[in-house]
Amino acid sequence: HILDGNAENLDQECALYEEKIKLAGGVDLFIGGIGPDGHVAFNEPGSSLVSRTRVKSLAQETILANARFFNNDLSKVPKQALTVGVGTIMDAKEVLILITGAHKALALHKAIEEGVSHMWTVSAFQQHPRTLILCDE
């Protein structure tokens, strides 16, 4: 299930998404990756760890990282995105986080070796009872 970023009313789309999750009895398994700064979905550093699905302004680093999907034309990269919230993910019965690439080593360290911090949103999953982090070497 994905959010419709082309919806006419983005706030309403986010509210409907949360309602669909509730009506389905919750999320059984959330699968997501992270960015080098530890963001999960588009929950950038500094995001609330109890956030719900919402419209989020993107950090410049994320805009630059996503330029590859827009022929490296920064003017075409969206400045906002719809994202499932950290709190929404934390409500899932199970969470699988994929971390690949040496450039994400610090984020992996912050995810499991240090305390929970809203500056490293991936660290929130230390508090989830059924999180699996899958990483490469």
UniProtKB/TrEMBL annotation:
Domain Glucosamine/galactosamine-6-phosphate isomerase: 4-128
Keyword field: Hydrolase, Isomerase
Record's keyword annotation contains Aminoacyl-tRNA synthetase: no
GO biological process, one term: carbohydrate metabolic process
Protein name per UniProt: Glucosamine-6-phosphate deaminase
Enzyme class, broadest EC rank: hydrolase
Annotated PROSITE patterns: GLC_GALNAC_ISOMERASE (PS01161)
